[in-house]
Amino acid sequence: MELTEQQIQRYSRHIILEQVGGTGQEKLLSSKVLIVGAGGLGAPAALYLAAAGVGTIGIIDADKVDLTNLQRQIIHHTGDVGVEKVASAEAKMRAINPDVKVKTYHQRAKADNIREVIRGYDFVIDGTDNFPAKFLVNDACYFEKIAFSHAGILRFDGQLITVLPGQTTCYRCIFHAPPPADAVPSCSQAGVLGVLAGVVGSLQATEAIKYLLGIGDLLTGTLLTYNALTMEFRKVRLKRNPECRLCGENPQITELKDEEQIVCDLKDCKR
Amino acid sequence: MCKVKQPILRIPESVKKDTFAYRSRVEKFVQGQTSAVAFRAYRVPMGVYEQRAAGKYMVRIRIGAGLVLPYQLERIAQLSKTYGNGIVHVTTRQDIQIHEVNIEDTPDVLEGLLEVGLSPRGGGGNTVRNVTACPRAGVCPKEEFDVSPYALAAAEYLLQFKNSYNLPRKYKIVFSGCSADCAFASVADLGFFAHQKDGVKGFAVYAGGGLGSNPAVGLKIEDFITDNEILEVAEAIKRLFDKYGDRSNKHKARLRYVVARVGTQEFIKLYKIERQEVRNQGLRGDIPKVRAGASKFEVPRSVVDSDNSRSPLRHNVLAEKTEGLFTVMLRLNLGDIPADDLIKTGQTAEKFGQGLVRTSQLQNLLITSVPRQNIEKVRSTLEGLSIDVTGNGRGKIVTCTGAATCKLGLCLSRGLADAISDKLNQSKASRQQGETIIRISGCPNSCGHHYIADIGFQGRAKRVNGRLMPCYDVLAGAQTTERTAHLAERVGSVPAKKIPDLLAEAFAAGAIKKEQLKGLVERYDDFSSPEFPDEYYYDFGATEPFSLAGRGPGECGAGVMDVIKLDVDQAKEAIRAAHKTQAAKDKSESVYEAIIAAARALLVIFGLEPKKDREIFAAFSKHLIEPAWVKPQAQQLLDNAIDWRMGDRNSIDDLLPQVEDLAKRVEELFLSLDANLKFKAKPAAQKANAGVPEDKAQTQKHTVDLRGVACPLNFVKAKIELEKIDAGEILEVLLDDGEPTKNVPESFTHQGQEVIEVKNVGDHFCVKVRRKK
């Protein structure tokens, strides 16, 4: 592909970078990223990936924009309240960069649909807000062999890890299964600093771009934790778990299933 | 006491009808059924102007003879508060303006005004504008007689006809009560001076005066007419103007251009013919009666002449012709007054004065016929206003609205006015200013009336050390009196930023007369310094360097033309210099200067202001040679010029004939520009086959021509090209001298590529890079 004059100008700051260049930018333009959840984490990730010229961006979410979302889900604006989140996100991505092809999935990611949705993407960003969904994304990416970035946020704390399924530490290597209901408070119970979502979601986008370009060191086998109050970033080395029920030596999980657990009631509270 | 409540200027029935029809026209426009252009042609003659701020409109209300009643002021103020910005503006032609109104609200404003007998009809466009009169008509001790009734009658007569709203250009009529000419009849399209001959009231009449570009003092067309002949004269001049005014060029359309074109004798002859015809046919339409004007307003009785104390307002109190009555002047800063203060001013006039307020040509308000014992009361009520109207350092400066809101403006005239006021107050020079009036226009259109100033300033752009600097021409020595009227003359031009100091020094030294001022200006008139402080390139209150770029076609008219003319004149001057000099080197210098000026002149209409010679030539090639406005041979001339500049050619003095051709062609194109800044001249040749050079560059493998591409985009593009070739191969990059030649090789080196050679190849550079990875 040949960059147009406008693209050369638009992406000039990327192209100047030694590690990107024109070829790198062309790679991004022919890449595909799926974002699961158009919420706090998905919002900044979607905006930055669109701005960066990732050629195809898919986004899946079943919800509509609620007033309580706007404190951190910066892709949605006040006028979008009541609009499907995926539609709102699509409009903003298109507005930032008409180069980008946006695919929307207005549905909840479930065991029976997620594999078809993520199939064909180069990278997945897990921007979900509850434990069962996070395990579902982890497992689905494992079965489809798609690299993904996991992240979670609560109050002032965030964490993320990048997983190359079958090669590096997966979410289930660390956490075997969702915690029991009510063991961990949800965001609406405990609160969350809005900008924390921006920091962590942006870090996820960074991982996606590095993966697509094949540059730098990914957060594989390493959990990055961040505390917004102390401003401390910590890297925790985590080895693959041979006893992982998904990717270990004796795998027990052979197919997807929806696990039971409280759903972060941020979105339930409006009902 | 009887206070007359009927509006002073009576709005003709036809104008009332027009006003009621306005609403549906606006609705159609808002709904998109009328184009902006068509609507504008309708809207402007209704007195509704678009302001520079997008989507905001100004309503200009004619105040006949400058006489307005308190209840009318109250309505204006309310409308300003409800629909506008709450600040009312008094103009130099005695109009009152409401600013920042949304177009949807303008029908409410127009209808609201009509309810109190006011109308903006004819406030703008090519119409009979407000008919003005002495600000103190009827009370001034010097006047021959009260001229306001005649101003009102002339207005009422002309306003009733549809064709008064579609003249070749505007038609301004002024009545002055005596030769002192406070109303500026000497520089009007039609000016009347009151005289009495054997006890009969009458006028001497002048025509074809006007300010703006190519200003002129009026030509005397009648020694004396009796007062009942004024309508005939006004009608005759209107017909003459309609017939002979140049509708095709609005910049040359005013009546004074007719005088200039046909000559004074022929003009008077034409006038006599029209006048005779009007007399033979008789006047049409309703003939308004000449009613008592300002003087019919009774003054407060029981004038007791007891108190002789000197009022703190004394500088603003003027004696009237009736003993014991006084005019109190409210000095406004640049004509602005908050709406609430306007209401209070009306109430004050009602209570302590004649029951009317007057607008003055110096953008002030007057309360007339205040008995001496009421002066103190007026003073205390005026002290309650939110603005200072005593004129402490302000109110003696008249400015146009300036480039901040005016689409034609060059300089920010109001910013200069503020800076002058601050400086004069600071240095206490405001006291020495006395009654000297400073007038500032941001461009040659002269809305600040700088040609009739004691000290006048006309904004202009000057190219200093390759950059545009906001400057002003300084003018002095105007006289506006009957018979001996003459315009101010230019005594020099100075950077805008030096003007406050200049004035402080002038007033301190008492240098207000033209000759003294000239001596002083000469010291400030030095542009030869190789360096000026950076702030000199910023206009007052501006955060961006002074620039004319971005003033699109149609919005800049006069302003842009002025800048082009600068360069055209410079080219001609350089050619003259080249002819005069014998030394080959000096001759080449002049030839080069002429080429640069000629090449740069027209670029501003494309929104370009290149600074470097190479950029100027590149832009000229693209916008004038490629579309064939200029012959292709010009390219050779530009190339030779660059070669000489780079030292690859010993002289270019032999190119003088070609340069003359180029300058001539550029001037031809310049003179053919229409109001939309499009050339009316025919192209010089068949359109050059544009694009061929680029194709060639692309087919030549491993070479990329990035001349004319700025940093860092040149590197971006070079890098993309480098990525296309295999490792070990070499790419040649053609670059402009300067930053690119430094930056691009550096960036490649930083990124681990091998820069083999950076070579000066005449007018540009070639950088060879080997791809390492």
Largest sheet descriptor of chain A: 8 strands, mixed
Distance between the termini of chain A: 48 Å
Order of helices and strands of chain A: HHHEHEHEHEHEEHHHEE
CATH class annotation of the largest domain in chain B = Alpha Beta
Radius of gyration of chain B equals 31 Å
Structure classification of chain B: alpha+beta
Please give the domain count of chain A: 1
Largest interface: A-B, 10 and 12 residues
With strands numbered from the N-terminus, the spatial order across the biggest sheet of chain B is 1-2-5-4-13
Task: Provide an overview of this structure.
The complex is a heterodimer of chains A (271) and B (773). Chain A is built from ten helices and eight strands. With 271 residues, chain A is α/β, with parallel strands linked by helices. Chain A has a single domain, classed as Rossmann fold (3-Layer(aba) Sandwich), CATH 3.40.50.720. In chain A, helix 4 (42-52) packs parallel to helix 5 (85-96) and helix 4 (42-52) crosses helix 10 (194-213). Mean pLDDT of chain A is 91; it is low at 262-271. In chain B, a hairpin with a 5-residue loop joins strand 1 (48-50) and strand 2 (56-61). A five-stranded antiparallel sheet of chain B has the order 1-2-5-4-13. In chain B, strands 3-14-15-12-11 form a five-stranded antiparallel sheet. A five-stranded mixed sheet of chain B has the order 6-7-8-9-10. The N and C termini of chain B lie far apart (99 Å). In chain B, helix 5 crosses helix 6, helix 15 packs antiparallel against helix 16 and helix 17 (613-625) runs antiparallel to helix 18. Chain B is elongated. Chain B has six domains: 13-115, Sulfite Reductase Hemoprotein, domain 2 (Alpha-Beta Complex); 132-281, Sulfite Reductase Hemoprotein, domain 1; 297-383, Sulfite Reductase Hemoprotein, domain 2 (Alpha-Beta Complex), CATH 3.90.480.20; 401-537, Sulfite Reductase Hemoprotein, domain 1 (2-Layer Sandwich), CATH 3.30.413.10; 557-671; 692-770, TusA-like domain (Translation Initiation Factor IF3). Chain B has 773 residues and is an alpha+beta fold. Chains A and B meet through helix 2 and helix 3 of A and helix 21 of B.
